[in-house]
Design a protein that fits this description.
single chain, 451 residues, two-stranded antiparallel sheet
Length: 451
Amino acid sequence: MKKYVLGLGALVVPSLIGAFMVSGCSEANAQDGLLPDGADICGDCGTIAKGDVGISGDVRLDGFFKALSNIRQSTVAIQADFDGNIRALAAVYNVNIAADATINASVIGQLKAAISADIDANVDGSLQVVYQPPRCQASLDVAVEAQAKCEAKADCQVNANPGQLSVSCEGTCSGSCDAECTGEFSCEVEAPSVACEGRCEGTCQLTAAAACNGTCRGECNGECSARDGNGNCAGKCDGTCEGSCELAAAAECSGSCTGKCLVNQGSASCNAEASCRGSCSGKCSGGCEGNFEPPSVSAECEASAKCQASAKAEANASLECTPPQLNVEYSFRANAQANARAEFTARLGELRARGLAIVQGAAKYEALLDGKVEGRVVFDPAPLAELGAQMNGLANANAIAEFEIPAGKLPCVVPAFREAISIVGSLGTQTRTTLQAQAEFVSAFKGGFGS
């Protein structure tokens, strides 16, 4: 990362300043003797950090600045939420964290120890955790809209409705697929209640007693790990369940499925009755986990290829991650008192709610910065790395000359690139501590805190 930042800086400073013969907006130019006092060429340039658009006046170049701004704002928000959630959990488990302390792997270690001790003191055996990680996809809608805006700015005849266009996705498509969607149980049907021919992801209303991989609510013909106030099972059933089963993971449902039903192509049409959650052999709309290329929205547009890089950068910077799925089952120690059980259940509820939020945020944080979700490569290259490489290629006078930057906006470009250098550098170094702390927490969380 350091090598990249130095390279970008070396290109930006001599090349762009030499090309524009200015180094900033009116105030800076006046101080440098480049403009008379009071002159105002570009007005308020705006900043990447504040999310200002139109810094350069060219839709393609501003698309890159906007993408970097989105990544920065997302990481700042996720880091703040992570800090807040960890401190809230520390208060629940009586772990003292100084107000000015950085939330790092060491702090997570202290919290893990307190949570593990609480589980050991109240639970007979260990927590049984069934976990499904978040899924992260780039927004194809953002890509198409950015492509359309760029082509329109280039005076191309935009004769297609951006909302009706789809994209070739080289990874996993999450949305409509106009051709074959492949992968086991890769077609997703969602309805209030359906008879599911494949696997149910949600709650199965059982028509007869059956095994339940999740939380049984009703009668358990066997041992039940927890019961509600009416004596009905509300936990893991080691026999057969009569009633409903809140599935911990997608599974067969011998009844009515409320939530999502996953089937294979053939049981339902992925482009009509269902959405795709697999590899699409045609065009995909919705989200893409992997590489893609924004389509042209014009019948003929010379600027189409030039628009794709910034449109893709905006889409990758706007990626979203689904919440993880987590089901936790346990049995109290035989000597646990009623008030102790209630207090433990409340703490565990807080841990679950805040933990799920942390995991979802951590998935997006890692996807943006490293292109991974819990260590699995999803985007290659990572959105930040790809954006950095693209901007590195733009940071010279010859490349900038290809953009249509209004004369009054030229002085805004150099400070914008300088700010970009600073942002990319900080994202490459200051985020490592948070990434490590998040990974430490996520690993413990989905593993039941080593209980």
